Amino acid sequence: MSELSAFDTRLAGLIAALSPQSRKAMAATIAKRLRKHQQQRIKQQVTPDGKPFTPRRPQSLRAKKGRIKREMFAKLRTAKYMKAKGTADDAVVEFTGQVQRMAKVHQFGLRDRPSVRAKEMQYPARPLLGLDAEDMKIVEDVLMELLNQ
Question: What is the 3-state secondary structure (H, E, C) of 27-69?
């Protein structure tokens, strides 16, 4: 580990030496690439750990006939709701607006009402956002591209 800490401090020094504008541009690039990877993972219905999402609960017999035609979180992963932004200090991928509450319920497995008149129910945890080894590789690749220029 001691070998890597020297590398990390050197890398932190190189990043700190960049101008605020170039750090912001780098963070924005990282955030956009991370958002794209998160969107792909949500589309595949997989958590950051690589486990599949807990399936939806079965619908009652008196409910609407037919199957559920849309996969979970189809609209949630669009760029309209899933924002990527970068500042000179950090890169952020987040959900915005009203969907932020819904995403939080699924991320942490909280209790919520599916509709206004429905009873409150416990949702299983389906982590939407998180870092995995592939995300860390994306960050490293962007850093190396920028430092090689």
Answer: HHHHHHHHHHHHHHHHHCCECCCCCECCCCCCCCCCCCCCCCC
Q: Which helix (H) or strand (E) holds 98?
A: none
pLDDT for 1 equals 45
Q: How far apart (Å, rounded) are the C-alpha atoms in residues 80 and 73?
A: 13
Q: Reduced to 3 DSSP states, what percent helix, strand and coil does the chain have, rounded to the nearest 5? A: 45, 10, 45
**Cβ atoms of residues 105 and 44 within 8 Å:** no
Instruction: Report the mean per-residue pLDDT for the chain.
Output: 87
The kind and range of the H/E element at 122 are strand 121-122
How much is the average pLDDT of 85-96? 92
User: Under DSSP, is residue 86 helix (H, G, I), strand (E, B) or coil?
Assistant: strand
Per residue in 118-149, pLDDT (tens digit) is 999 999 999 999 999 999 999 889 988 887 87
Listed residue (16, 37, 43) closest to 136, CA to CA: 37
Rg (alpha carbons) of the chain, rounded to whole number: 19
Quick one: tokens of 10? 């050197």
Q: pTM for this one? A: 0.84
